[in-house]
């Protein structure tokens, strides 16, 4: 360990230097994957894995803040995860609730829950809203906490909200169909008013989106990391930023 620490610090400084003057992302989305596999590899329980992952979130947000990131979206619980057995889901929800509350208590970041609150237990939805309300006046980095989130569900909710809004104004379906633009749906997404993610990171070696920010990530750059989320280090984040800075973004062209 005594040998590794100086080497780690030297490598970290090297990565930092490589990013000087580089173009960095405004919005970073993260799929915090691998908590259960991390726990299994250590002979620990699922709850311990999720808690270890939760303990790494504040560190990650500090790294993003230092890099000048304006918005971070953390995928903490998918709509599919809500179908897990109660014995596993209940402690996971408690960890999420406490973690988000702890982030709010720092007063450093503006918490913005994204997802379908109607799909969540009432207590979870209430506590997430409390954290959001407590940080509503914070001017720092926005932290979207995606809980009960699914990309298809988000688009469905956006279209539903769009239809309801136009119906309230007396617009017919035919009139809406004639004037509907991409931007009209975007205005009803959970992340409305925010820049789309420039960089999406997924840990644990999995190389798929699983529906994360399905609409918003159309032109995002992706970075897949082998490390399980609890083991994700600052140098891993710096490597993701370096990879992003080296890419020529084409935005679909």
How would you characterize the overall build of this protein?
- The structure is a single chain.
- With 253 residues, the chain is an alpha/beta fold.
- It has a domain at 24-150 and 199-245: 3-Layer(aba) Sandwich (Undecaprenyl pyrophosphate synthetase).
- It is 46% helix and 13% strand.
- The chain is built from ten helices and six strands.
The side-by-side strand order for the widest beta sheet comes to: 3-4-2-1-5-6
CATH topology of the domain at 24-150 and 199-245: Undecaprenyl pyrophosphate synthetase
Report the CATH C-level class of the domain at 24-150 and 199-245: Alpha Beta
Specify the biggest β-sheet.
Answer: 6 strands, parallel
Distance between the termini: 47 Å
Based on the structure, what is the oligomeric state of the protein chains?
single chain
Order of helices and strands: HEHHHEHEHEHHHEEH
- Roughly how many Å is the radius of gyration? 19 Å
Mean pLDDT: 95
Approximately how much helix is present in the residues?
A: 40-55%
- By helix and strand content, what is the structural category? alpha/beta
Strand content: 5-15%
Low-confidence stretches: none
CATH superfamily of the domain at 24-150 and 199-245: Decaprenyl diphosphate synthase-like
Number of helices, where a helix is a run of at least 4 consecutive DSSP H or I residues: 10
Total beta strand runs: 6
Tell me which CATH architecture of the domain at 24-150 and 199-245 applies here.
Answer: 3-Layer(aba) Sandwich
Shape: globular
């Amino acid at each position: 360990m005594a040998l590794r620490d100086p080497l780690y610090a030297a490598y970290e400084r090297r990565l930092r230097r490589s990013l000087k003057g580089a173009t960095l992302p405004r919005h970073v989305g993260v799929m915090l994957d691998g908590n259960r596999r991390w726990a299994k590899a250590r002979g620990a329980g699922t709850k311990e894995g999720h808690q270890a992952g939760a303990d790494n979130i504040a560190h990650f947000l500090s790294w993003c803040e230092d890099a000048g990131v304006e918005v971070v979206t953390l995928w903490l619980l998918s709509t599919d995860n809500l179908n897990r057995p109660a014995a596993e889901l209940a402690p996971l929800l408690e960890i999420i609730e406490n973690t988000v509350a702890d982030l709010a208590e720092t007063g450093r970041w503006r918490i913005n829950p994204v997802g379908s609150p109607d799909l969540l237990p009432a207590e979870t939805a209430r506590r997430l809203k409390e954290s959001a309300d407590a940080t509503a006046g914070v001017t720092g980095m926005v932290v979207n906490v995606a809980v009960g989130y699914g990309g298809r569900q988000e688009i469905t909710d956006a279209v539903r909200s769009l239809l309801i809004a136009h119906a309230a104004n007396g617009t017919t379906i035919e009139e809406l169909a004639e004037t509907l633009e991409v931007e009209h749906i975007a205005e009803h997404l959970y992340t409305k008013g925010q820049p789309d993610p420039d960089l999406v990171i997924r840990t644990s070696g999995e190389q798929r989106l699983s529906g994360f920010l399905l609409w918003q990530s159309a032109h995002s750059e992706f970075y897949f990391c082998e490390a399980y989320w609890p083991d994700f280090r600052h140098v891993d984040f710096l490597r993701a930023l370096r990879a992003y800075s080296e890419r020529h973004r084409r935005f679909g062209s």
